[in-house]
Amino acid sequence: MLPMIKSRAIDLLLQWKYYNLGCTLILLIAITPSALCQNHVVNGGFEILSKCPKGTGELELAKGWHSVNTPDIHTLCNNSSVSNFMGGIQPHSGNSYCGFYFLATTLDENQKSNFYQREYIYNKLASPLKRGGLYSVSFYISLADKSGYFSDRLAISITRKKLKFKNSTYTLLKSKRPIIVYEESKLSHSKIWEKINVTYKAQGGEQYLTIGLFDKTVTYKECENFMNKNSVSDIPGPCYYYIDDVKIEKK
């Protein structure tokens, strides 16, 4: 009987060993790099909509996204065409993307052109960033076909609190530490998506991502020079960008 008991004990030990090995493998699979790359941006691809938009200025139909002034959501959910009032492009992924006036001309009461109209998009992150952590901040961007000029810079602001703003066409958001991205070669391209990617070291507790132009108000002459320098068309028009697949991931 003793040999049989010994054999049974060895079998049980082997089963326990392989059981632990299997659990270890499952755990390793569960924490692969792709699983670790959590996107802190809620609905970064603009895919989750409360309903299909019927017009312009309806970005807030996209879960997690908020706007200053009237950014747009462009989507295939209500038709099969990618065309929109600024041209159109296939989404970088999925069926939807955002569009907003980075900088646009308006006419003041004296009928003189100025460049103070701006739009911003912002997102309350799924979870706060951790102090000292390095994060990859990325998104895809494309200059709209009907833009009259492009911007040679854009800004990203990552903050603990939502930036304060007045509900006005001429809103200029102020950010103490915006990340200024100088990517002229990428920001001047239409009909293709270009990836913007920067590294951000967290102060700790940041919960909001805002994208737009945070430069100081510029004079009429400076605006004219800006438009002429960065012109992409003989037809006057705004500087309007499409944006898709926004991510903040721990490096």
How would you sum up this structure, described in words?
The structure is a single chain. With 251 residues, this protein is α+β, with helices and mostly antiparallel strands. The protein folds into 2 domains: 2-36; 59-250, Galactose-binding domain-like (Jelly Rolls). Helices cover 19% and strands 31% of the residues. The protein contains 4 helices and 13 strands. The strands form 3 sheets. Strands 2, 5, 6, 8, 11 and 13 form a 6-stranded antiparallel β-sheet that branches. It has a 5-stranded antiparallel β-sheet with strand order 1-7-12-9-10, with no helix packed on it. Strands 3-4 form a two-stranded antiparallel ribbon. Strand 5 (96-107) and strand 6 form a beta hairpin. It is globular.
List keywords for this structure.
Jelly Rolls; alpha+beta; 4 helices; disordered N terminus; globular
Q: Which series of helices and strands comes N to C?
A: HHEEEEEEEEEEHEEHE
Q: Give the count of structural domains.
A: 2
Could you tell me the radius of gyration in angstroms? Answer: 25 Å
* Mean pLDDT, all residues: 79
Per CATH, the class of the largest domain reads Mainly Beta
Please state roughly what percent of the residues sit in beta strands, choosing from under 5%, 5-15%, 15-25%, 25-35%, 35-45% or over 45%.
25-35%
Note the main sheet.
Answer: 6 strands, antiparallel
Query: How helical, in percent, are the residues?
Result: 10-25%
Identify low-pLDDT runs. Answer: 1-6, 21-35, 217-222
Helix and strand arrangement:
Layout: H1 2-30, H2 33-36, E1 65-68, E2 72-75, E3 83-84, E4 87-88, E5 96-107, E6 113-117, E7 120-124, E8 134-143, E9 154-159, E10 179-181, H3 184-187, E11 194-201, E12 208-212, H4 220-229, E13 239-250
Antiparallel strand pairs: 1-7, 2-5, 3-4, 5-6, 5-13, 7-12, 8-11, 8-13, 9-10, 9-12
